């Protein structure tokens, strides 16, 4: 019963992302390749920062990396590339990362594709959208839950770590993940005109 509802929500959300003409233009392969490279850069930079912070001072140090370093990395990539860069998820720690309607629809699609057996490491979405008379490329790259993610997002957190997370993020909803599950997505938007 849940699957038809999820499929309907996904279809509705994706319909909202279509241009006013009713059909989606295809993004150029060059733009998609650029977005893929930026997603890889973001992922590798963030992972490196997280691993270094954990090695230096334990998991509690990782909280500050996600709170301050991740937006900094996104800002640097955005400044040099012209893309709006961010992270989002269905279960967020920081409310500022909550998905908009379009992002939620893509995340729901990622979940359905993962349930059907598609590899999260290769999962992406690239769509040309129209908004307020302008065209944009919206690219999202799935983030699978990896080992370093489980330190702060897994099912069993150390009590001190959990307390530190709740001090920083009182409305945290981003725990209980297992390795290989969809953690969220990197999201990129670029004006096309």
UniProtKB/TrEMBL annotation:
<keyword id="KW-0732">Signal</keyword>
<protein>
    <submittedName>
        <fullName>DUF3365 domain-containing protein</fullName>
    </submittedName>
</protein>
<feature type="domain" description="Tll0287-like">
    <location>
        <begin position="29"/>
        <end position="189"/>
    </location>
</feature>
<dbReference type="InterPro" id="IPR021796">
    <property type="entry name" value="Tll0287-like_dom"/>
</dbReference>
<feature type="signal peptide">
    <location>
        <begin position="1"/>
        <end position="24"/>
    </location>
</feature>
<dbReference type="Pfam" id="PF11845">
    <property type="entry name" value="Tll0287-like"/>
</dbReference>
């Amino acid at each position: 019963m849940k699957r038809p509802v999820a499929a309907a929500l996904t279809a509705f959300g994706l319909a909202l992302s279509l241009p006013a003409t009713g059909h989606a233009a295809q993004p150029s392969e060059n733009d998609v390749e650029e977005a893929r490279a930026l997603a890889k850069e973001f992922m590798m930079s963030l992972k490196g920062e997280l691993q270094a912070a954990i090695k230096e001072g334990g998991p509690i140090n990782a909280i500050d990396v996600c709170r301050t370093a991740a937006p900094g990395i996104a800002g640097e990539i955005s400044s040099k590339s012209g893309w709006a860069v961010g992270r989002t998820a269905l279960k967020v720690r920081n409310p500022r990362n909550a998905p908009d309607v379009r992002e939620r629809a893509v995340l729901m699609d990622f979940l359905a594709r993962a349930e059907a057996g598609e590899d999260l490491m290769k999962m992406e979405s690239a769509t040309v959208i129209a908004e307020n008379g302008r065209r944009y490329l919206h690219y999202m790259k799935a983030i699978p839950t990896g080992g370093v993610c489980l330190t702060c997002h897994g099912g069993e957190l150390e009590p001190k770590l959990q307390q530190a997370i709740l001090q920083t993020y009182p409305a945290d909803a981003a725990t209980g993940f297992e390795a290989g599950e969809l953690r969220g997505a990197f999201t990129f938007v670029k004006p096309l005109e």
